[in-house]
Amino acid sequence: VLENQDLQDSIKPQKVEFHSLNFNTTLHWQPGWAREARDALYFVQYKVYGQSTWQNKDECWGISSHVCDLTHETSDIQEPYYSRVRAALAGVYSSWSLSCRFTPWRETVIGPPTVTVTHSNKSITVKLQAPRSPYKRKRGSTIPMTNYYDLLYQVFIINNLLDEQHRVLVYEGKEKVIEVQDLRPGVSYCIVAKMYMPMLDHSSAYSSRQCTVL
């Protein structure tokens, strides 16, 4: 029995955490500290905070992976959720390891917008597209993150002659197409953008840079 108890403790999953980007939400954990723990299988359950019964996540029941997709299970984005994981090895089950409480609307990370750039001889036209959630409208298109939050686009220009790191904010607002004017022909300019949420004072990461020579 003691050996079983030791095995139970040593295969118990560690660091059970929700990771979420644009409401694409996965549960991650690390194997227990025993060397054999890498052969363990894992079982995932979840529930809304305040519910008494845990739900099994069928696709993550007896898996060898250390990650489980809970996007669909956490689609009520204002609700707080918990998840828990246990491991099994050689017929021995560990106790459950519990995640922290996770509320998608508060805690998902908002990704950067998609940026496309076209130019004329003295100006750059920037087209912006907000990141999309995994959730769909009735017609089948995915719902942009701007439906869930009051988000602004922030557009920055980098003049490569001056300094790679010197980003100048040229626009902040909700327009999806903007024009940056009075630029110098023959100069290489790069555009990066991010999403900004005034209410929580959060910013996304920068988009990948789009460069052009006028």
From TrEMBL:
It is found in: Secreted. Residues 6-96 form the Fibronectin type-III domain. Coiled coil: none annotated. Residues 108-212 form the Interferon/interleukin receptor domain. Receptor for IL22. Binds to IL22, prevents interaction with the functional IL-22R complex and blocks the activity of IL22 (in vitro). May play an important role as an IL22 antagonist in the regulation of inflammatory responses. Belongs to the type II cytokine receptor family. This is Interleukin-22 receptor subunit alpha-2.
